[in-house]
Amino acid sequence: MTAVRSNRRKRIFVIADIEGSSRCTTRSAAKFMGKGWPRACQGMTRDVNTLATALLEAGAGQVVVQDFHRTAFNIFREHLNPDVILNQGYARGPVPGLGGPKGFDGVMMIGMHAPSGWPGFLPHTLTSRIAAVRINGHLVSEVQLFSAALSRFNIPPLFFSGCPDACTHTRIAMPDVPTFAIDKWHPDFCENKWRRQLADAAVNALHNAKSQPCNTRYNPRGPFEAVVTMAGGKSMATRLARRWGYPSHGANIYLEVRDYEALFQELSRLVFLSPLTERMIPVLLPAYHLMGRAGLYLAKRRTQ
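Given the sequence above, the corresponding structure tokens read:
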């Protein structure tokens, strides 16, 4: 295991999603161009800005935020601290969506959700087309997949925030990672107070980065058999399994993987690509980003 570097001015990578953000309270608010999505983007932006600014004020040398929901264009750049670096759109690889982030001392994940098959607000693992991903009977979440994919760059998971159910799963699956829940349906919920508490919890995780046992890379080694249960049942599982040459039975697809990083790679191909679209990524990805930029522009207009 590789310990986090001791440099006081740490570089922090932040992955931001929308389901566990402060103003996303309905399914349509999480949907690209859905009703309530512009307001959810506004809340997500404020959440990210409060956390990132607090990290910088606490001594972080650099904070880079990766927008990671739907088209990956959900955050209003003009409402962020100018010292925060914002990445929008998805990278082809080497880590699907995230590219190849190097030189960071840790990753913090905010606005997150529970995995497919677990209780919570809009739980899913990569996509709602997946009903569950299990290894040795245990559900696998995105925080596990992201952390494993970043392990090759020596980036340890430092902090996680999402709905209470998402935090419960993370504490079970990754007990050394500090969590901070958002209960936005509570009658006494106050956005600004919660954001300040979120930022305080993240700063505390930053300060504890030298001594906490979570400051090592996360990527459980196998080999493992991952069981992917498709929400579309047998027909969807059969179609996707045949497309990529995986065995399947009923609604389940079976993947043999060496570790959790490999599982992330295989799942991304399975549910988002076909052999044809995989070859066309250099053309399709810019078009997808253009759609995301256009949608975010319209969302800005609606919040003005």
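Confidence is low (pLDDT under 50) at residues 1-7. Try to locate this feature in the token string yourself.
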